Amino acid sequence: MESIQNFYQTILASSHPLILSVHLLGKAVPIVLYLLGSWFLSTTVQFILVILALAADFYFTKNINGRKLIQERWWYDVTGEDTSTFRFESYKEYPDVQAPPINPIDSRLFWLALYLAPVIWAVFGFVCLIKFQFVYLILVIFAGGLSIWNAYAYRLCDGWEPGKTSEAPLFQLPMLPSFANLDRVSRLQSFFTRT
């Protein structure tokens, strides 16, 4: 009981206790739904709820939690106009602006939760392989992929220096078809149709 009280006091010592709580719950809710959901939900409903919780966590971590807790944000540029596909925003960009200092509690718990989630999903994936639960392995791979992608992008964002040309990341998402590519496909298709 005392450890719960200490954790509660730690959250209250945060600069943004509500956002830190959302961040920690965003990591915990999909894991709890994955572990306990089969007791009271069908497999389909469990999958849907876990995926919705993961998507909400990914969105909030990427766009809100990182911006408020560690003053960093990233996004993925899908225009394909240059080789650098990640874009970063950081407190380092604005040295003249007096931003509030980053609370060490916010930073520590943000990074801990961000790195711990992929590890937990990797353990779940290993258990799925051992138990031959390949249907649940699909869900675990999806969850691990989102967690790893967020952690990887924030790691790149944390090491990013404004004004310096950044090297290409180790892994990039493949380019999705753009409207220009779709236009080329339609012209190619019209070549083979009879008029």
Question: Could you explain the architecture of this structure?
Answer:
The chain has 195 residues and is mainly alpha-helical. Helix content is 67%, strand content 5%. The chain contains six helices and two strands. It has helices spanning 2-12, 17-40, 43-69, 104-131, 134-159, 179-192; strands at 72-76, 86-90. The chain has a two-stranded antiparallel sheet. α2 runs antiparallel to α3, α2 (17-40) packs parallel to α4 (104-131) and α4 packs antiparallel against α5. The longest helix is centred in the middle third of the chain and has 28 residues, at 104-131. The protein starts with a helix and ends with a helix.
Helical proportion? 55-70%
What oligomerization state is this entry in? single chain
- Helix-strand sequence: HHHEEHHH
Number of helices: 6
- Largest sheet entry: 2 strands, antiparallel
Number of strands: 2
DSSP strand content? 5-15%
Termini gap = 78 Å
Which descriptor suits the 3D outline? flat
What's the Cα radius of gyration? 21 Å
Strand and helix layout:
Layout: H1 2-12, H2 17-40, H3 43-69, E1 72-76, E2 86-90, H4 104-131, H5 134-159, H6 179-192
Antiparallel strand pairs: 1-2
Quick take:
The protein has 195 residues and is mainly α. It is 67% helix and 5% strand.
Fill in the keyword field for this structure:
5% strand; 67% helix; mainly alpha; flat; 195 residues; 2 strands; single chain
